[in-house]
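To: structure subgroup
Subject: Chain for Friday's discussion

All,

I'm putting the inputs and outputs inline so they're searchable in the archive.
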Amino acid sequence: MREAKEIVYLGDGAAWVRSLHEKHFNPLGDAFRHRATFIVDWYHAQQHIWDCAKVLFGEGSDAAARWAKWRCGLLWEGWTRRLLKDLAKQCKSYRGRKREAINGLYRYISVNEEQMRYDVFRAKGYQIGSGPVEGACKHVVGDRLKRSGMIWSRAGSSATLALRIIWLNEEWDQLWLQKPLAA
C-alpha cells in the first residue's frame, strides 16, 4: 500500500469502522496515512434512509418508498446539507419513535457527511459500494480457506493467502523465478 498513488477505505460508517480508519489512515499522521479516502458504503447509507422511512410510514408503503427515494437521490447527488436541513425540519413534526428515527438518521449523516460525497467519489471513478470488495474476499479467501474440514493457524492462513493472491494475479512464474527451488 505504501506504493499506491491512492487508497480508498470503504466501510459502513459504524463507530468501530471509523476508529479503524483513524487508527490506520489517520489524516494527522504520516504522508501514507494522509492519502486514504474514506467512503461510507452507498448501500449501507441507503439502508439507513429506508429504515427511517419504514418507521415513519410503514414497511412496504408507497409513502415510505417516495420518502426514501427522494432522500437517497439527494445523497446520491452529494446534497448532504440539503438532506440534513430537510431532516431537521421534519424532526419538528414528529414525536416518540418517529422523531428518534429521524434524529438517528440525522446523526448518521452528519457524522459521516464528509464520507458521503458520492457525486465527488463517482466523478473520481471510485467504487462507492462494498459489493465488489466483499465478492473478491469471498473468492480469494473463502474459496481457498473455508473448505470442508480445514483448520488454519494464523501463520498458515496468511502464507496460503499470500500464495493465492500471487496465483490469482498471475504472478506465480515470476515468484518462482525469484525463489529457485533447492537442488
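Points worth raising on Friday:
Residues 131-178 form one domain.
The longest strand covers residues 7-11.

D.
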